[in-house]
Amino acid sequence: MEFWNEFKRDKSGLVGLGILILCILLVVFEPLIIPYKEAGTKWRSIEYWQDNSQSAPPVWTNLFTKTKQAASADLRDFSKTVDADGNTIYQFHYNYQYDLAPYDLIIRAVGTGTIPLTVSVMRPDKQVIELFSTSLYNLSENEPIRISILNSSRDSALSFVREFESEENFGNIQTMSAGVTEIIFSEAKPGFVQNQIPLKGNYIFEIKVSQPIAEEGQEIPKVYFEEPHISVVGRVSGLLGTDNSKRDIFSGIIAGLKWALLIGFFTSIISVFVGVIYGIITAYFGGKVDSAMMFFWDYFISLPVLPILIVAAAIFKPSIWTLVGVLIVFSWAGSVKTVRSIALQIKEETFVEAARALGASHGRIIFRHMAPILIPYSFASMALAVPGAIIYESTVSLLGLGDTTVVTWGQILNDAYQGQAMLTGLWWWIIPPGLAIAIIGMTFAFLGFALDRILHPKLQTR
Amino acid sequence: MYKWYAIKRILKGIVIYSLLIFTFSLLFNKVADETQRSQIEEQVRAEAMRQKGKKAEEIKAFQDQRRKALIRLYGLDKPYFEKVISRTVKTLTFNFGKSTIIKSSDGDRDVRKIIFETIPRSLLLFTLAAIIELIIAIILGLKKAQNPGKSLDKGTTLVTMILYGLPTWWLAMLLVMLFAYIIKIFPSGGMYSSPPPEGIMRLFDMLYHMILPLATLVLLGFWGGSFFIRNIVLSILQEDYIMSARARGIPEKKVLFGHTLRSAAPPIVTMVLLGIIGSLGGAIIFEGIFSWPGMGNLYWIALQQNDIPVLLADLAITTGIYQLGLIALDLIYGFLDPRIKVGGKA
Fold first, then answer.
1. Do A413 and B170 contact (CB within 8 A), yes or no?
2. Is residue A197 classed as helix, strand or coil in its secondary structure?
3. What is the pTM assigned to this prediction?
4. Which residues pair with A107 in a beta bridge?
5. DSSP state of A70
6. Residue A379 lies in a domain
7. Rounded distance, CA A327 to CA A252, Å?
8. How far apart are CA A208 and CA A119, in angstroms?
9. What is the pLDDT of residue A80?
10. pLDDT score for B20
11. Any idea what the Cα angle at residue A75 is, between residues A71 and A78, rounded to 5°?
12. Domain-ending residue, one of A184, A199, A233
């Protein structure tokens, strides 16, 4: 309680605690927060990300540009009707309020068997374009359906243009690569492909699943078509944009948070704890034990951590847990010396002498009498050791030597480096992961310095 | 006795370094073995190509014989422990053998040569950065210590904490993106333009290439140092002899630079040396991003090319420099602060 009262007076410490609690909440509620739920496990799955746009800037960049670019979206709300002929019609509303059309629209669903399919769009000017009409044959059970409008609607888009354009102009357009989505989302009048004026308003996309015609003497086959939705592949996407493998960076950052915290906590807590116990033991026994243990310590303090870590990672290709273990082996030595000097004083205190006189064992004196006094002192070093551990992991990952089964911030940065993000100026790919590392570092620095001031009151006057 | 203290410290350093190299040989024995075997295979095949006008069986017999001879020559047929020991001795005597792919600037594949030409480049960059950082840190640290708790002190301390966990290489990436690709005023990497200019312009060219990496290091480097110096100077300023110096009317400048900094020198030297050897360790990514052709960049290249001999030798040399730094630290500290030497005798 007294501790908390002291802590409350430290503003930066409170800020640090606040951010830390926020981070833990983010980790706990991760599935509710991130738009791509399986980002953590399917980070390297090409299929999982295929409907996204590539290297798209964050959505909020629209606030700073004059021409608003279409954002990525997933249209999931639809109304389902069955007409007189037994055809099922799914209607999707899309409110288009941008200046630049999305790259593509992707029709997605799961289906079984043979499905005759027609997709059309009714524009705000009441023009209807039949985008494509196709039949999907012999799908196996619940096979995913994925149809890109960019690939399958070029002809229908061109014939829509023909209605408005002169013959001569149309010839030019045909040879040009006129974008399908630009045609759909532009005002229709002569010359509109060259001079696109966006047509804003409500677009109604219609997926018509026709009733298959029964062959003679056979029953009408049942059509199974479920979970239809339309992915809008925008030019801007998500809170933090996407990378060149179409992955949502915001999801990656949040999914990486738990690994950063985990690496930081495990490494710092265990290594500082080991260091404290080591320091107490060497001080308590003194003499030859002390000399031998301090030589061993000298050996560990002489290891240049990062180069060894990198060479070892390159040769042994560790998992994230092995990496944490190796980090602990390399970093426990850091806290030994200060603990040892304090323990040397405590050892001479009367209560230790009393305990010994009462016949307490060495283990009891070390763990029951000395460690409880010294461990609180090390809380500050624990907090201050967290950023280092996170930076070590991200450095190893940045070199492409990390555990590829998880997402960490270092790996996102490695992808950014390999993907030439610096050269092409994809700042939304480089800034967030590094900033995340820096913020976590700052959080624990705030906490560590605050704890330091409280636990080592001598420094307070300074 | 400073002499005994120094000798003892150096001997301990040598023992620890040998032990470290022994550990590395133990850890990386298998991969070093495999690399050597594939190098032998390559050599045998090259020699067999030169044997013209021989039958297939003869060539095969020749290859087998050569392979056996080379394996014996490199000691690969020896038992495990003997191999580890011989590798330790070889590393300690800087016999690193040949690289698999990487070549030195004049096309040599001698690993020792490859590494030794990178060391001065790394030292140049990081020592220069450390000197600039130290100057800024001393000025700022003294300013902070003179008015503790005032807005300058509090503000810079806050910045120090905010920057605590910021990776230097990330700032490097940002600055390269900003100043080399978006606003094209600095080169994106390397040490010289290609082709490098002649004469005095060569120096200026190098300085021009050095601005961005140096700026990155200094921008992040001096904050922690100034905070550290502030704490030390503050504790010294409370000492009686400072008060008496002030009472005697000695100018404040002289008190600060003459009396205070003299007593603060040992910990400051520690900080600077630890900073330099620390940044050498962390140089791998940093130099990689700036393609600064130092030891760190060599790690990066060796990793990408999977050049194990260079990688292991680079590790051995880095560890050696690290160890040298630690020894130098204790020696200088013992020299500046005579109380330490007592510990050396006991």
1. yes
2. coil
3. 0.86
4. A147, A230
5. P
6. yes
7. 24
8. 6
9. 86
10. 92
11. 155
12. A233
The token pair that represents B286 in the structure block: 């940093």
Contact B235/A at CB under 8 A = yes
Quote the pLDDT of residue A436. 93
Q: Is residue A382 part of a domain?
A: yes
Residue A158 lies in a domain: yes
Q: Taking CB atoms and an 8 Å cutoff, what residues of chain B touch A399?
A: 284-285, 288, 300, 303
Count of structural domains within chain A: 2
Q: What's the ipTM?
A: 0.84
Closest CA to B209 of B237, B233, B180, B232: B180
CA distance linking residue B179 with residue B90, whole number of Å: 45
Say whether both A423 and A304 belong to one domain.
yes
Is B341 part of a structural domain of the chain? no
* pLDDT reported for residue A22: 93
H helix runs in A121-248, sequence order: 149-152, 154-162, 167-175, 180-184
Regarding whether A217 and A105 lie in a shared domain, the answer is yes
Give residue A2's pLDDT: 74
Q: Distance between CA A242 and CA A253 in Å, rounded?
A: 11
| Whole-number pLDDT of residue A177 | 62
- Hey, CA dihedral for A255, A257, A258, A263, is it positive or negative? positive
Q: Return the minimum-mean-pLDDT range out of A8-17, A182-191, B230-239.
A: A182-191
Residue B212 is part of which domain span?
A: 111-336
Tell me if A30 is assigned to some domain.
no
| pLDDT per residue as tens digits for the range A322-354 | 889 988 988 888 888 888 888 888 888 888 888
The two tokens of residue A253 are 């950052």
pLDDT band of B132, cuts 50, 70, 90: very high
Chain B residues lying within 8 Å of A442, measured CB to CB: 161-166
Number of Cβ within a 10 Å radius of residue A243: 23
Burial track A122-148 (b if 16+ CB lie within 10 A, e otherwise) = ebeeeeebebbeeebeebeeeeebebb
B252 pLDDT more than 70? yes
Residue in the block written with tokens 């409350």? A8
- Return the residue in A301, A322, A329, A391 with the most chain B beta carbons within 10 A, the one to mutate for interface testing: A391
Tokens encoding B261: 């900094």
Q: Tens of pLDDT along A78-111? A: 888 888 777 888 888 888 888 888 888 888 888 8
For residue range A413-429, list pLDDT tens digits in order: 999 988 888 888 888 89
Looking at the structure, tell me whether residues A132 and A272 fall in a common domain.
no
Between chain A and chain B, the number of residue pairs with CB atoms below 8 A apart is 136
The CATH number linked to A386 is: 1.10.3720.10
Angle between helices A249-285 and A379-398 (to 10 degrees): 130
Q: Of A305, A390, A423, which is closest to B165 when you measure between CB atoms?
A: A390
